[in-house]
Every structure is written in structure tokens, then in C-alpha cells.
Amino acid sequence: MREQYELIVIRHEDLLETAKTMKDEGARLVQICSVSTKEGFELSYSFAKGYDFINYRIVMDADTQITSISDFYPSASLYENEMSELFGVKIEGMQLDYRDQLYMIDAETPFKGGN
After folding, report:
1. In CATH, which of 3.30.1330.10, 3.30.70.330, 3.30.460.80, 1.25.40.10 is domain 4-92?
2. Can you give the residue ranges of every domain in the chain?
3. In angstroms, rounded to a whole number, what is the distance separating the alpha carbons of residues 83 and 88?
4. Assuming Cys at both sites, which of 14, 33, 51, 102 could form a disulfide with 44, CB separation 3.0 to 4.6 Å?
5. 34 and 43 in contact (C-beta within 8 Å)?
6. What is the DSSP string of 21-54?
7. What pTM, to 2 d.p., does this model score?
8. Tens-digit pLDDT profile for residues 60-115
């Protein structure tokens, strides 16, 4: 059986539809990762279907707001709270919002670019 790895760049506006499609196709959410860049953020959403690993990447500026995928993947709430609290990613509609109380940290958004 041949494993497949795929990276697809999408627009932030397409995130919700992409997550719904992955859920409808039976894909598991593997992880969500945020990286600060000079322009804002790169967000990577990883899904697995069988032995196939599919990554969707969003490149966006720091002022862009994304919509939570926690309606389709409840476990996304932890990743989304982490991205919000540590990086400053703006996320609307999280099922479970810790309101910057997920981590005991001294600095606000310590991994946000420019901090």
C-alpha cells in the first residue's frame, strides 16, 4: 500500500468548506499548526484518510480572521485556542473558547511575529 502526502494551499475563505468536505469524506483531523511570518501567519491543517495525509495551508496577514472548524471537528478547539493565545490568530465561532486562559504564560501572544 502506497502512502500519499499532499500539501494544498487554500484561501482562508475556503477553510470551512474544506473542513466540511474532509469530515464528509471520513477524514480524521490530525493537527493544526500556526507559524508566525513577517506578513502574518501560515496555518497548516492536517487530515488523514486511511494512509493518505492531506495538508491544507493558509497564508494570511495578521488582521485576517478565520472561522473555527470545531463544529465539524470538536478537538480543533484546543488547537484553535493555542493559535489564538500563543500566536494571536483571530478565530471566530470556537465551540470552546478558553479566552486566553489555556496556558499559564507571562507574555501576551509570545509567538506572534514582531513581539
Report:
1. 3.30.460.80
2. 4-92
3. 6
4. 33
5. yes
6. HHHHTTPEEEEEEEEE-SSEEEEEEEEEETTEEE
7. 0.87
8. 999 999 999 999 999 999 999 999 998 999 999 998 776 767 767 777 787 787 64
